[in-house]
Amino acid sequence: MTATGQQTLAKGHARCPIFSQIAGFCKKLLNRTPQARAEQETLPLQPVVLTRDQHGISRQQISDNALKVLYRLNKSGFEAYLVGGGVRDLLLGRQPKDFDIATSATPDQVKQLFSNCRLVGRRFRLAHILFGRDVIEVATFRGHHHQVNNNKNASDQSSEGMLLRDNVYGTIEEDAERRDFSVNALYYNIADFSVVGFSNGLKDLENRSLELIGDPETRYREDPVRMIRAVRFSAKLGLTISPRTAAPIRDLAPLLGDIPPARLFEETLKLLLAGYGLETYHQLQRYDLFAPLFPEAADVMGQDDNDYHRFLELALINTDERIAKDMRVTPAFLYAALLWGPVETRTQQFMHEGGLNYYDAFLLAMDEVLGRQVKSVAIPRRFSSVVRDIWMLQDRLTKRSGKRPHRLLEHPKFRAGYDFLLLRAELDPKLKELADWWTEFQVANPVDRQQLSRAAQARHNQFGGEDPAKARKRPRRRPRKKKEA
C-alpha cells in the first residue's frame, strides 16, 4: 500500500468506525498470507536524513576527482550523490577504495557534460569519467525493471530469474530499493552535504547487521553473485549476515554456475585478495559457496586423507599478512595454492593408473586441472602461466647439484616458487631440509654456495635421487638389441 493510500485509510478510520473495523480485518487477513509478508518486506522504508552536523563525513575525505564530477552534475541541474560503499566506509571510519556516484542524469547526458567520459556495459549501462588512472563510475538512478517488461532493450530476465539487461531509469527512492544490501543504500548529497539512508541502512550499519533489500530468494536469483558479495561484506566489515539474508544461500549456491567465468574471476579477487581471505574462505565453506567456484579443490578437500584444506588456510594467512604489511601479492600464487591439491592427486592417479612417469603425469595433471577450473572461474593466461611456473619450480628446486641452483636463482618466478616451497614445508617435514637449503643458498657467498652444492650432490648420491623426500619412478629403459652378425 502506498503512503497516499495509508493517509486516505487513516482519514477514513476517523470518519467511519465500520470502515475502520473492515479495514482492520482485511489487514490482518492479508498479513497472514506468505505473499503479503513477502511484499511487506520489499516495501521501501522512509528515508532517514542526517544533516551536515549529524555525521562525520568531510569533503576532505572524498577524492578531488569525485568532487569535480559531483559539482558539475549538480551545477548542471541534476541530482548527484556519492553512493554505496564509499559512504558506508566513510561512516565506519574507513578510507574507501573507490568513489561511485549516482545521478538523475542519463548516461548520454553524463557523456555530454564530460569530454573524458566513456560509456561501458551492456547489462548495466554506466559512465566512466577518466582522470588518468583514476576512474569515477557514474550510474543513473535505477528504476523497477518490471515496469517496462515490454521493452527488451531496457530490461530482460532469464528463465531462472537472473537479470540479463537492466537499463531502466528511475528516482533515488527506486534506486535505493534496487541496491543489494541496506548498508549500501546510503547517499551523500553534494547539494547540502547531508547523508540519506534508505531501507534501514543507517540502523543496520550501527547494529553491524547485513540485510538484503527485498525478498532474498528473488534478489539472489536476479544476480547470484549477491550471495558471494554477502560473504565478502560480512568478512570485510565484520557484519553479521542476518538469518533471513542467509537462509536461501545454500539452496541457491548452484546458481553461480550460470555466471560468466570471467566475472567470477574478478569477484574471487575481491574475495580472497583484499586482506581478509581466511575469514572469507571459512564463510564460503559455511554457506556451500566454495564448491561452485572451485569444484576441483572442493573435491580433493572433501577427502579425509590429506592436508590440502590446511595448506590453503596457510596460503590465505600468508596472503592476508602480506597485504597487511602493504607487500605485493599476486593472484597466481593463491591460485597455485588453491589447485595444488588437485594437481598432486591427479598426478598420482596418472602414474598408478596410466603407468606414466612423474614428469609426464605432472604435465598432464596441470593441463587437466587448469582446463576444468576455467569453466567455473576463468583464470586469465597471464596468471595461469605463472601458476604453471610455480608448480614446475617445485620439481626443479629438488635439483641442487652442479650449476643448476645458480641458474635457478635467475628464474623470473624463482621467489614465488621458493615461497610456495616454504609453504609446503610447513605441513610436510620431509621438505624442511630442502626449504632450509634454499634459504641458506640464497644468502651464501660463492665459496659457501659451492660447498652447499657439493653437500647436496653427496646427499643425491646417498639416496640415488635428487630428492629423498620424493622417490620418483622413472621408466625403465629397454636393453639395446644386439646387431645380427
Automatic annotation (TrEMBL):
<dbReference type="InterPro" id="IPR052191">
    <property type="entry name" value="tRNA_ntf/polyA_polymerase_I"/>
</dbReference>
<dbReference type="Pfam" id="PF12626">
    <property type="entry name" value="PolyA_pol_arg_C"/>
</dbReference>
<dbReference type="GO" id="GO:0043633">
    <property type="term" value="P:polyadenylation-dependent RNA catabolic process"/>
</dbReference>
<keyword id="KW-0067">ATP-binding</keyword>
<feature type="active site">
    <location>
        <position position="98"/>
    </location>
</feature>
<keyword id="KW-0507">mRNA processing</keyword>
<comment type="similarity">
    <text>Belongs to the tRNA nucleotidyltransferase/poly(A) polymerase family.</text>
</comment>
<dbReference type="GO" id="GO:1990817">
    <property type="term" value="F:poly(A) RNA polymerase activity"/>
</dbReference>
<keyword id="KW-0694">RNA-binding</keyword>
<dbReference type="GO" id="GO:0005524">
    <property type="term" value="F:ATP binding"/>
</dbReference>
<keyword id="KW-0548">Nucleotidyltransferase</keyword>
<feature type="domain" description="tRNA nucleotidyltransferase/poly(A) polymerase RNA and SrmB- binding">
    <location>
        <begin position="238"/>
        <end position="299"/>
    </location>
</feature>
<feature type="domain" description="Poly A polymerase head">
    <location>
        <begin position="80"/>
        <end position="210"/>
    </location>
</feature>
<feature type="compositionally biased region" description="Basic residues">
    <location>
        <begin position="471"/>
        <end position="485"/>
    </location>
</feature>
<dbReference type="GO" id="GO:0006397">
    <property type="term" value="P:mRNA processing"/>
</dbReference>
<dbReference type="GO" id="GO:0003723">
    <property type="term" value="F:RNA binding"/>
</dbReference>
<dbReference type="Pfam" id="PF01743">
    <property type="entry name" value="PolyA_pol"/>
</dbReference>
<protein>
    <recommendedName>
        <fullName>Poly(A) polymerase I</fullName>
        <ecNumber>2.7.7.19</ecNumber>
    </recommendedName>
</protein>
<dbReference type="Pfam" id="PF12627">
    <property type="entry name" value="PolyA_pol_RNAbd"/>
</dbReference>
<dbReference type="InterPro" id="IPR002646">
    <property type="entry name" value="PolA_pol_head_dom"/>
</dbReference>
<feature type="domain" description="Polymerase A arginine-rich C-terminal">
    <location>
        <begin position="355"/>
        <end position="478"/>
    </location>
</feature>
<feature type="active site">
    <location>
        <position position="180"/>
    </location>
</feature>
<feature type="region of interest" description="Disordered">
    <location>
        <begin position="449"/>
        <end position="485"/>
    </location>
</feature>
<keyword id="KW-0804">Transcription</keyword>
<dbReference type="InterPro" id="IPR032828">
    <property type="entry name" value="PolyA_RNA-bd"/>
</dbReference>
<dbReference type="InterPro" id="IPR043519">
    <property type="entry name" value="NT_sf"/>
</dbReference>
<dbReference type="InterPro" id="IPR010206">
    <property type="entry name" value="PolA_pol_I"/>
</dbReference>
<comment type="function">
    <text>Adds poly(A) tail to the 3' end of many RNAs, which usually targets these RNAs for decay. Plays a significant role in the global control of gene expression, through influencing the rate of transcript degradation, and in the general RNA quality control.</text>
</comment>
<dbReference type="InterPro" id="IPR025866">
    <property type="entry name" value="PolyA_pol_arg_C_dom"/>
</dbReference>
<feature type="active site">
    <location>
        <position position="100"/>
    </location>
</feature>
<keyword id="KW-0547">Nucleotide-binding</keyword>
<keyword id="KW-0808">Transferase</keyword>
